[in-house]
Design goal:
The structure holds two protein chains of two kinds. Chain A starts with a helix and ends in a 7-residue tail after the last helix. Chain A is built from twelve helices and no strands. Chain A is an all-alpha fold. Chain B has a single domain, classed as Orthogonal Bundle (MetI-like fold). In chain B, 70% of the residues lie in helices and 0% in strands. In chain B, 52% of the residues are buried. The chains are: A mainly alpha, B mainly alpha. Chains A and B meet through helix 1, helix 6, helix 7, helix 8 and helix 10 of A and helix 4, helix 5, helix 8 and helix 10 of B. Chain A: Belongs to the binding-protein-dependent transport system permease family. Chain A: One of its GO terms (cellular component) is plasma membrane. Chain A: Keywords: Cell membrane, Membrane, Transmembrane, Transmembrane helix, Transport.
Chain lengths: 317, 294
């Protein structure tokens, strides 16, 4: 077995207990949410017998461990159950909403990566100058201001007063790419503010680390152009940081989209889960939580692997 | 919203008393730390003195003065019920800062305890760390959303929910630095000399893990304020009529155009608090771990 395959296998094996715990935590939502699911499903007017019947049909009268087992069995068959509020299965509700959240997160990452890396490198290169301090001030504000507040102000200005963007709603890409972009641009930019602040802070410190090293001085003394030094020598070495940052940014984008989708009334997964929680739609919340959890286990796994391939010094034994 | 898995790992250092006073002196001289300390200090004092700085109640309605713009009588204007926004923001500061502080404190205590236990006892390590991995697999805001919904929306639910969300990264940090400290020669020497596990944990590992944890907690304090505001904004956090910065913004959102002041001032409060705490954290990090200094 080559070391690379061995590494992947070890990482996969380590992820198994995490996946199990994530599933149990997602399942626990049903038991944690207030109220009796059977009563809520049966409705306010239900007789005790009707409630009992619902309880039995959902298997809620069985021991916890059996319920968990049945749930697992359904999940591996792709059966997430039916939403209590929406007239559809949890799986189809999620699939329907997923493109919105992915578009939002993808667009904000596309905005963040070049700007964040650019600003961070600029600040590091001109360390201590006014460029450095202004970039760092902007970054600090970016990681500090609440997104929903900026969103509210931005909608008031750009959508209502200036009329540049719609204040809410979503148009599928397949239907009209221009309108899709117009609907998502403002929410994506606002989602990016935190990410840009975060990434530029991280890039700056990674680049400063590299700039201080001997091989950069050697490269300079050889007469290599400054642009080549920054873009090739320094950035290549800061790349490991970018991989780590991308994992965190993805998580920030998807977490942040929960709030942003709410503000802009975008029909994404984040809005779905907020509505589900408020409406006590147990199967829906369980399903979405599980998918979120598993997605991040996967992202972390990929980041971990990318990290150890990008930097051969990192080895896990 | 913010995944705190981002805090860099620190090299553990050993501090003599003289070094401690040196650290304090360097902190006092640190620019970001000064500004952060000032901002957080002013807000904390305003929050503590709150009721003495205003002559009205946060829920008192001045019906004839609905939607008054900022003026001498109502510094920050009034809302749709004629409530004084200045007073509400002041009382909101008490809620927000308390939530942030409580979350940081709880995350600190549990992070330290679980982290040291995981580093010290191999038998517990797997269970603790895998549970932390699993908790960190959910976006913090979503985890908090689920827990507050389960516990019922209230300030204490928010504190519990955010603590659960922010304990795991603390555990990782403490465990990481504890693992380094455990291998240091003098700790090994203490072990050989017959020191028992509790003594090693309390005397050696704990003091040496405090620095990185402290840096982390100042950021958790900031994240918690942002997250509390977001939860209250979504309606599952602190419930009206109790004012919190998040729910004042949520209530004023529909009137943002006619009465921008309702939304503006609580947002500035949140921003100043998180900027201040981030600056404090930056200062602490620079001084406690010069290796990462920017």
């Amino acid at each position: 077995m080559t070391p690379a395959i061995r590494l992947i296998l070890i990482k996969l094996l380590q992820a198994v207990p995490v996946v199990l715990i994530v599933s149990i935590l997602a399942f626990l939502v049903l038991n944690l949410l207030p109220g009796d699911p059977a009563v809520i499903i049966a409705g306010d007017q239900a007789t005790p017998a009707a409630i009992e019947a619902v309880r039995h049909s959902l298997g809620l009268d069985r021991p916890f461990i059996v319920q968990l087992g049945i749930w697992f069995l359904h999940i591996v068959h792709g059966n997430f159950g039916n939403s209590l509020v929406l007239n559809q299965t949890v799986a189809s509700a999620m699939l329907q909403r997923l493109p919105v959240t992915l578009s939002l997160a993808g667009l904000s990452l596309a905005i963040t990566l070049p700007i964040g890396i650019g600003l961070g490198s600029l600040a590091a290169y001109y360390r201590g100058s006014w460029i450095d301090s202004s970039v760092m001030t902007v970054a600090l504000v970016g990681v500090s201001v609440p997104s929903f507040w900026v969103a509210g102000l931005a909608v008031a200005l750009f959508s209502v007063v200036l009329g540049w963007f719609p204040s809410s709603g979503y148009v599928p890409f397949a239907q009209n790419p221009a309108q899709w972009l117009r609907a998502l641009l403002l929410p994506s930019i606002i989602l990016s503010l935190f990410e840009i602040g975060f990434l530029s802070r991280m890039t700056r410190s990674a680049m400063l680390d590299v700039f201080g090293q001997d091989f950069i001085r050697t490269a300079r003394s050889k007469g290599i152009s400054e642009w080549r030094i920054v873009s090739k020598h320094a950035f290549r070495n800061a790349l490991v940081m970018v991989i780590t940052a991308t994992g965190i940014l993805l998580s920030a984008a998807i977490g942040g989209s929960v709030v942003i989708e709410q503000v802009f009334a975008l029909p994404g997964v984040g809005r779905l889960v907020v509505e589900g929680i408020l409406a006590r739609d147990y199967p829906l919340v369980q399903g979405v939580m599980l998918i979120y959890g598993l997605t991040f286990v996967l992202i972390n796994l990929i980041v971990d692997l990318a990290y150890s391939f990008a930097d051969p010094r990192v080895r896990y034994d | 919203m913010i995944e705190a898995s981002t805090v860099p790992e620190f090299a553990a250092t050993t501090l003599a008393p003289r070094q401690r006073s040196m650290i304090l002196r360097r902190l006092v001289a640190h620019r970001s730390f000064q500004i952060g300390f000032f901002l957080v200090g002013v807000l904390a004092i305003a929050a503590v003195l709150g009721p003495m700085l205003t002559n009205t109640k946060p829920s008192a309605m001045h019906i004839s003065h609905r939607f008054s713009p900022p003026q001498a009588k109502f510094l920050f204007g009034t809302d749709m019920f004629g409530r004084d926004i200045f007073t509400r923001v002041l009382y909101g500061a008490r809620v927000s800062l308390w939530v942030g502080f409580a979350v940081a404190a709880i995350a600190g205590v549990f992070g330290t305890t679980l982290g040291v236990l995981a580093a010290q006892f191999r038998s517990l390590e797997g269970a603790i760390m895998r549970l932390m991995d699993a908790l960190m697999s959910f976006p913090a805001i979503l985890l908090a959303l689920g827990i507050t919904a389960a516990l019922g929306p209230s300030m204490n639910s928010v504190i519990i929910a955010l603590s659960v969300a922010y304990v795991p990264p603390g555990v990782r940090i403490v465990r990481a630095s504890a693992l380094v400290v455990r291998e240091l020669d003098y700790v090994q020497a203490a072990l050989i000399a017959g020191a028992r596990a509790p003594r090693i944990m309390l005397r050696h590992i704990l003091p040496n893990s405090i620095g990185p944890l402290l840096v982390h907690l100042s950021f958790v304090f900031a994240y918690a304020i942002l997250a509390e505001a977001a939860l209250s904004f979504l309606g599952v956090g602190v419930q009206p009529p109790t004012p919190s910065w998040g729910n004042i913004i949520a209530e004023g959102r529909d009137y943002a155009l006619q009465a921008w002041w309702i939304v503006l001032f609580p947002g500035i409060g949140i921003s100043l608090a998180t900027i201040g705490l981030n600056l404090l954290g930056d200062g602490l990090r620079d001084v406690l771990d010069p290796k990462l200094k920017g």
